[in-house]
Amino acid sequence: MKSAYTGRGSKAHHPEMLLALLFYGYATGVFSSRKLEQATYDSLAFRYIAANDHPDHDTIANFRKRFLPLLNSLFVQILLIAHQMGCLKLGKVSLDGTKIKANASKSHALSWKYANQLEIQLKAEVEELLRLAEEADNSERPDGLDIPKELSRREKRLNAITRAKEEIERRAAARHDKERAEYEEKLAERKAKEQKNGKKAGGKKPKPPEPGPRDKDQVNLTDEESRIMPLAGGGFDQCYNAQASVDLDTMLIVGQHLSQSPNDKQEIAPALEVLGNLPKQLGTVDHLISDAGYFSEANVRSCLKAQILALISIHRDKHNQSLKERFCEPAALPGTADAVETMKHRLQTQTGRALYARRKSTVEPVFGLIKAVMGFRQFLLRGVESVRGEWNLVCVAWNLKRLHALRG
Asked: 3-state DSSP call for residue 99?
């Protein structure tokens, strides 16, 4: 960070001080640059960190936005410090995700259907305004109508609609390519099954995906990289999907990434990549525990390829199981069992059930404490890359708080 300062202009605030200010702010629930600036006057702790200096909110905001990409290395350095303290040794990790509100309102989202309707309406209004401007007799013109101003306003809205439609079309094309690949894969599996069994496969034949945007496809005009996502308590909002891999023994976040996908099925691969890139001295992840939202055969095989035992729930377990269901051991596993069948068997054993039960007491409390205690419920930055950096900053703040508790 220091090398980015050229020494020209007014005296700069030291980057280590600004970084400490951000770390302490996020760890104590002070996120906005204006509140951080005010805290350097009002709070003894913040005054101490700032060495009785008072960086203005623009300086703090610009520093955060400028250096967020460099914080990924600091995330790993804090894990190494935890290892040196004797707190962290990788082994069993629990993966989960949580929806965090974007810095955008869902009321500013524009759907494909409404965009087309609004485009027709605005073009008709532009034609009417041009007709009024060309007529010599302005008796039909309403009082106070400023035609140039109204035309400029509609041109701006039409340009925004054009950009929104282009983005919706781009997303629709990407979705069609993905659905087409899945459709062809299903057809190949169906054909292979028919050849193996020597008879026609049952069930409905997969339908080919339809290209082009759908009426409900939409884009947000404030932060177009955010997505409408379902919330745990019901309803929908503009969100990002924040993912965290939490060490079972320490509750430290050992891997984090952020996605624009509303569900978790595609998040195993990036989580494994992050965990695989951690320094070797931290140890090796040997178990990955996650809920039914992550289950797919491909995900189980990805864990197996990474030499990690997967404990991914196949379905949501019912409550109040009988004694027989809770304490019985499954039948012996046949020698022909595949990766999914092996994992199902592992989950049915006493050891597997006890290990999976620890998931809800590790990763879920981490998200609860980040939102309820630290108070982080909405991103301040916009755009997926900036938001990824901010989520990394939140995870760093959590790990610093957790390390303080572990040291005690």
From this structure: strand
Beta bridge partners of 219: 110
Long-range contacts of 364-367 (CB under 8 A, 24+ apart): 364/96, 365/251, 366/244, 366/246, 366/251, 366/253, 366/398, 367/96, 367/98, 367/244
Distances (CA, A) of 357 to 155, 292, 363: 57, 13, 11
257: left (phi over 0), alpha (psi -120 to 50) or beta: beta
* Cβ atoms within 10 Å of 233's Cβ, excluding its own: 5
In the chain, the largest separation of any two C-alpha atoms, in whole Å, equals 93
**Separation of alpha carbons 388 and 393, rounded Å:** 9
Query: Quick one: which of 42, 44, 51 has its CA closest to 17?
Result: 51
pTM of the predicted protein model:
0.84
Please report which residue ranges of 106-229 form alpha helices under DSSP H.
Answer: 112-134, 147-197
Give the DSSP H or E segment for 327.
helix 323-327
| Domain layout of the chain by residue ranges | 2-68, 72-105+225-407, 107-220
Cα–Cα distance for residue pair 133/382, rounded to 1 Å: 40
Element (DSSP H or E) covering residue 367 = helix 363-372
pLDDT tens per residue, the chain (408 residues)?
A: 666 655 555 567 888 999 999 999 999 999 999 999 999 999 999 999 999 999 999 999 999 988 888 888 899 999 999 999 999 999 999 999 999 999 998 888 889 999 999 999 999 999 888 888 877 566 666 777 888 888 999 999 999 899 989 989 999 998 899 889 888 888 888 888 888 777 887 778 888 889 999 998 889 988 999 999 998 888 899 999 999 999 999 999 999 999 999 999 999 999 999 999 999 999 999 999 999 999 998 999 999 999 999 999 987 666 656 656 666 677 777 777 888 888 888 888 888 888 998 988 999 999 999 999 999 999 999 999 999 999 999 999 999 999 999 986
Q: What single-letter amino acid sits at 172? A: A
Question: Strands 283-290 and 90-101: what pairing?
Answer: parallel
Alpha carbon distance 330, 345 (integer Å)? 7
CATH of 72-105+225-407, one of 3.10.310.30, 3.10.450.120, 3.30.420.10, 3.90.650.10: 3.30.420.10
